[in-house]
Amino acid sequence: MNCPRCNTALQTDYIDDCKTRIEVDICPDCGGTWFDKDELSQIENIIEPTFLEIRNIPAEEEQLETLRCPKCITHPRLQKAIHPRDKKVIIDYCPYCKGIWLDEGELEAIQQDNWLLIFGKVFRCLTCTRSK
User: Fold this and answer.
1) 48 inside domain
2) Among the four 95, 99, 100, 113, which has the fewest Cβ within 10 Å?
3) Would 3 be classed as within a structural domain?
4) Is the overall model pTM greater than 0.85, yes or no?
5) Total structural domains within the chain
6) Can you tell me the mean pLDDT for 75-103?
7) Structural domain boundaries enclosing 97
């Protein structure tokens, strides 16, 4: 399987988070990652609190480039979607095999959350439950 961004052969690697180990395909040149169906959903909600959130993701123009599915034989175009946790991350997904391509830095951007935002969410939850 080749990288949809730079056509380099993808290499098998593992992501270990908490109690989950997921086999993914990573591009050694551009650093992107291919997740097979349902693999990303196992780890994308793991939040890494950070004092200062720094995103190292490609520019929007690069994220919007047309890519082809590395897994499907006919190589259909990957569809684009804005990730609900981080509006600056545009993911590429295949409507057929349900795989997802993340460019380098996008997984980290999805998982990072600013400490101040976390405290704000907790505070809102506490005030909502007290008012009921």
Assistant:
1) yes
2) 95
3) no
4) no
5) 1
6) 90
7) 11-130
